[in-house]
Here is the input.
Amino acid sequence: MSGAGAPATGNIDGRGLHVVIVAGTWHDVITDGLIAGAERVLTEAQATHRLVRVPGSFELALAAQAAFAGGADAVVALGVIIRGGTPHFEYVSAATTDGLTRVALDAGKPVGFGVLTLDDEQQGLDRAGLEGSKEDKGAEAADAALRTALVVRELRS
Here is the structure.
C-alpha cells in the first residue's frame, strides 16, 4: 500500500452542496469505517448529506444514478470487493468501476470512488479509517467528490 503522493485533504467549504453516500453492505466492519470517514469529511465541510445502503458494490452505480436524478451534486460510492478463488472478483470490480464512471459522465457530476478492491480482509482494515488503519479511503473519496463538485460548479459559472 502506498500513500505516497496523496493530496492533502480537509479545509473544504461544502456549504450548498448536497452529497449522497451510497454504500454496499458486504464486509460491514470495513464498510462502516469507510462510511464514518466520508460522513466526517462531509460534516466538517458543512455539506448536506445522506446515506443509502445497497446490497453490494454492483448496485452502487444504479443508486448513484438515482441520487443524481434526485438532485445530488455529488455521490460518494463506498464498497468492498475481496478477491476469491473465482473470476467473480474481476467481473464485479470491472462492472462497478465502469458503471460508476458512466454514471458520473452521464450526469456531469462527480462520484467519489471509495470502492476497495482487495486481495484479503486485512488490506481493507488497513484502508478503512479504523483505529490502527494506515489510510482512510472513505474520507478520501468524500474529499475528492466535494473538491470535484466545486470545480464543476466553478467551470459552469
Notes: The helical segments are 28-44, 60-69, 88-107, 121-127, 137-156. The chain has a mean pLDDT of 94. DSSP finds five helices and four strands in the chain.
